[in-house]
Amino acid sequence: MPPTGKEGLYALTRAFIRHLHVSNYAPGSIEGMEICVEHFARYLEARGLYEIRSVTKADMEDYLLIIREPFRVKRAENTGDTVHRSQSGTIKHAKTTRLMKDYTICNRWRVISVFFRFLVKRGHLLYNPAAAIDPPRVVDKGERKSLTLDEMEALLSSPDVKKRDGLRDRALLELIYSTGLRKSELMNLELFDVDIPERTVRIRKGKGRKERVVPLGEVAASYLQRYLEKSRPLFCRGRVRKALFLGKAGLPLCAHGIDRIVKIHAARSGLTTNVTPHIIRHTCASHLLAGGADIFSIQKLLGHARAEYTQRYLHSTLGDLRKVHEHCHPRGKSV
């Protein structure tokens, strides 16, 4: 007989996580979805809703209100760690109150919807209680940030390529800008994924575990070749390493390490924009589009499953297009 009560509730969440593993979801996606489902399970537990079939539309509407409410942030004494509590939590004298970002709210709701669909398919529920509620949506804020050609050139020129770390950093920045790789894809790159003579990069662990091969620009290929010959052996210290990019200890660069490299060189080049690896990816797409590339070619390069994901980059060139229209069209400006 299947477990009931609190034990039964958490047994369902564990079954869902196992399903994600079997369905070949990326480890990072599984980790994030597990956090969302466990948060939801704690909400149900706090309300005494141990039987999943007793969850109603009203319960889901209340949960949506909870994840939309402000949360408070306070620095823990002595440690400097950030502690989060909801509005109904116990922390007093919190320094700041923040709202969860629209994207985070939408993602949490999406995960819970996937969880309910899994339960319906497995026969634990007759219907999805969240299906009748309009899902939260991210408000399109129009133009998205990308760097100009001059800003991108300044960023790429920042590393000192005469030094071990500088040559690695230049190769890394050139690679992101040339291929538009995601940070997670960059972390998973191994030596044999890069073909310098053919100037291609094979992404074996892309989003949704999809594989693709993308072209590598001549400049990026040149700096990668120099990195592999002169810099990377100094990181290896005689040890065999599969990862393409290595840190000081000879270990593969982690997400924090990649972010740090980008931040350091953005600051050195005088950029005031909050530059991230994703901003460079976005800049790659925007510059390709401005140079005449079609949206479907950019879609293949970036590894987007659908063209509408790529169309967001049209906003990046809208400002330039507006300036051209105003300057060149006989009716571009009012008289």
Write the layout of secondary structure elements.
Layout: H1 5-22, H2 27-46, H3 57-68, E1 71-75, E2 82-86, E3 96-98, H4 102-121, H5 149-157, H6 164-179, H7 183-188, E4 194-195, E5 200-203, E6 212-215, H8 218-236, H9 255-268, H10 277-290, H11 295-302, H12 307-310, H13 314-328
Antiparallel strand pairs: 1-2, 1-3, 4-5, 5-6
Helix pairs in contact: 1-2, 2-4, 6-8, 6-10
What does this 3D model show about the protein?
- With 335 residues, the protein is mainly α.
- It has two domains: 5-69 and 100-121, DNA polymerase, domain 1, CATH 1.10.150; 149-326, hpI Integrase, Chain A (Orthogonal Bundle), CATH 1.10.443.10.
- It contains 13 helices and six strands.
- It has helices spanning 5-22, 27-46, 57-68, 102-121, 149-157, 164-179, 183-188, 218-236, 255-268, 277-290, 295-302, 307-310, 314-328; strands at 71-75, 82-86, 96-98, 194-195, 200-203, 212-215.
- The longest helix is centred in the N-terminal third of the chain and has 20 residues, at 27-46.
- The chain is elongated and about 65 Å long.
- It starts with a helix and ends in a 7-residue tail after the last helix.
